[in-house]
TrEMBL record:
UniProt-listed Pfam families: DUF2147
Protein known as: DUF2147 domain-containing protein
InterPro entries the UniProt entry points to: DUF2147 (IPR019223)
Gene3D superfamilies assigned to the protein according to its UniProt record, in alphabetical order: 2.40.128.520
Domain of life (superkingdom): Bacteria
Domain (DUF2147): residue spans on this chain: 24-139
Signal peptide per UniProt: 1-19
């Protein structure tokens, strides 16, 4: 009986811990329609957070390339592209990295912060964070 209770506690704890992380798959929703535009996977590499586009919901955009990008992302497929790079944990947020808007080809400074277990605040900005834009990604169920 003790083993069963211990196993149940372990499963419950790991589920709770997984739900309280920025890592995993997130839905980016169109601000006007509320429909999912893409699915983004946030992952960890060398202690930093990165994110790549793993799904594009619009069939006409599945083969889209970043034609507005400069440098190494120029004309690369958006699907599979890293759009969030090099964020480091700083208290309750991850900051110090960049985010790419593949539709515009623009790179912004960025920070992200978990807002509840299923909502991620993503803020891109130029210069200081007051000059920027915030979007919210929703955990993919």
């Amino acid at each position: 009986m003790k083993k069963l209770a211990l196993a149940a506690l372990f499963v419950a704890t790991s589920l709770t811990m997984n739900a309280q992380t920025i890592f995993g798959k997130w839905e980016n929703r169109n601000e006007d329609t509320g429909k999912v535009d893409s699915v983004i996977e946030v992952y960890e590499k060398d202690g930093k957070a990165y994110a790549k586009i793993v799904e594009i919901t619009n069939p006409d955009r599945k083969d889209a390339v970043c034609d507005q990008c400069e440098g190494p992302n120029k004309n690369k497929p958006i699907l599979g592209m890293d759009i969030l790079t090099g964020l480091e944990k700083d208290g309750d947020e991850w900051s110090g990295g960049e985010i790419l808007d593949p539709k515009k080809g623009t790179i912004y400074k960025c920070f992200i912060q978990l807002k509840g277990k299923n909502k991620l605040k993503v803020r891109g900005y130029v210069g200081v964070s007051v000059f920027g834009r915030t979007v919210y990604w929703h955990r993919k169920s």
